[in-house]
Each structure stands twice: as C-alpha cells, then as structure tokens.
C-alpha cells in the first residue's frame, strides 16, 4: 500500500522565532475540504483547517528549529532539519511510516525513503497543503507566545517578518534572544 506524507515549512523569511515544519498523512476515507497553500487562507480559516487536519489525518507531526540553530547552520539547512524532525515526530507519535514523501519546494531533506520536491506543492498536493497549514498555525502560535514575552516588539502583528513596525521596534529596543543574528537587518543593528 502506498502511503504519501506531505511536508512543508513556515517561517524562513522572518527575523525572529523558530522555523517550523509539519508532516501529514491524510486519511483517504476522511477528505478535508478547502485545503490550500496556507498563505492563501485567512488566519481564521487556517485555524479551522488545522483542527480538522489534526482530527481527521491518519498521522501528523510538527517540529521546529530555533533561531540559534538557524544562525549556526543557516536557514536552508534549518528548514531541512525542521522537515526531518516533523517526520520523525509524526512517526514517534503515530507509528505510521510513509512509502513516499513529497515536500514543498525544490530540495528534499535526507530521508531513508523516496522523497520528491514539488515546486508550489502547497497548492498542488493536498498532503503538502495540510502540512503548510499546520506549520503556519504552529509558528503563528509560537509568535503570539513571544508577543506576550516581548510585548514591545509587536510580534502578534508582524509574526517576526521584517515589516516597518518590526524594524522600528528593533531599532528602539534592540535584539532579543529570539532574533536571528545572521539575518542582515539584525546583523546591521549589532554592527
């Protein structure tokens, strides 16, 4: 029997917070309507779909790689590591292995099973769309937690992306332990 696992990440571009990834094996007997690239869905719709995915999927896993790890190994390697961790978390929690992994993008992390990279996979493959939604909602939740820890930065609004507000607050308040020191706008402030 073929078992497809979709994997996607969220949070490569932000200046702060971890990069997240999710792995999902959907249940063909319980299809989920409305799966799409998480960036094309409203926050409210993503939250509803994330709950449906967690309820109806055969298996799912979410993992992250910290800002400190991103600085040590670079964002591409951190994204690959988050994807590997998400798959391993799914297997650990559900005991279900895939026969094929499909990831969004043009590169595959190393896995001990076949893996295909699909450009714009988050809008072409339901499993990748589901993973995209779980990764995005998990990352957003982590930035809301950071917002309560560092209210002066406005993380709830910009989710760590390099918006005018974020850059202004960075200039006013300096760098937190959650900022990615290897990213140009943060590096420039520290210089």
UniProtKB/TrEMBL annotation:
GO terms for molecular function: RNA-DNA hybrid ribonuclease activity. It catalyses: Endonucleolytic cleavage to 5'-phosphomonoester. It comes from the Bacteria. Gene3D superfamilies: Ribonuclease H-like superfamily/Ribonuclease H. Keywords: Cytoplasm, Endonuclease, Hydrolase, Manganese, Metal-binding, Nuclease. Its cofactor is Mg(2+); Mn(2+). It is an enzyme of class 3 (hydrolase). PROSITE patterns: RNASE_H_2 (PS51975). Manganese or magnesium. Binds 1 divalent metal ion per monomer in the absence of substrate. May bind a second metal ion after substrate binding. Signal peptide: none annotated. InterPro entries: RNase_HII, RNase_HII/HIII, RNase_HII/HIII_dom, RNaseH-like_sf, RNaseH_sf. Its EC number is 3.1.26.4. A divalent metal cation binds at residues 8-9, 104. Pfam families: RNase_HII (PF01351). Its main location: cytoplasm. It is found in: Cytoplasm. Residues 2-191 form the RNase H type-2 domain. Belongs to the RNase HII family. Endonuclease that specifically degrades the RNA of RNA-DNA hybrids. This is Ribonuclease HII. It comes from Methylophilus luteus.
């Amino acid at each position: 029997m073929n078992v497809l696992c979709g994997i996607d990440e969220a949070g490569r571009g932000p200046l702060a917070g971890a990069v997240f990834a999710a792995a999902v094996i959907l249940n063909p007997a319980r299809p989920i309507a409305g799966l799409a690239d998480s960036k094309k869905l409203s926050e409210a719709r993503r939250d509803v779909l994330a709950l449906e995915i967690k309820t109806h999927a055969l298996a799912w896993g979410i993992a992250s790689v910290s800002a400190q790890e991103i600085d040590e190994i670079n964002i591409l390697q951190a994204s690959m590591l988050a994807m590997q961790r998400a798959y391993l978390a799914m297997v650990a929690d559900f005991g279900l292995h895939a026969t094929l992994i499909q990831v969004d993008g043009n590169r595959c992390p190393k896995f001990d099973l076949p893996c295909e990279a699909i450009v714009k996979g988050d809008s072409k493959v339901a499993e990748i769309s589901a993973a995209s939604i779980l990764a995005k909602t998990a990352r957003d939740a982590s930035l809301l937690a950071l917002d309560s820890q560092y209210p002066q930065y406005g993380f709830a609004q910009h989710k760590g992306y390099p918006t005018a507000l974020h850059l202004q607050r960075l200039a006013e308040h300096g760098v937190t332990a959650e900022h990615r020191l290897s990213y140009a706008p943060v590096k420039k402030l520290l210089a």
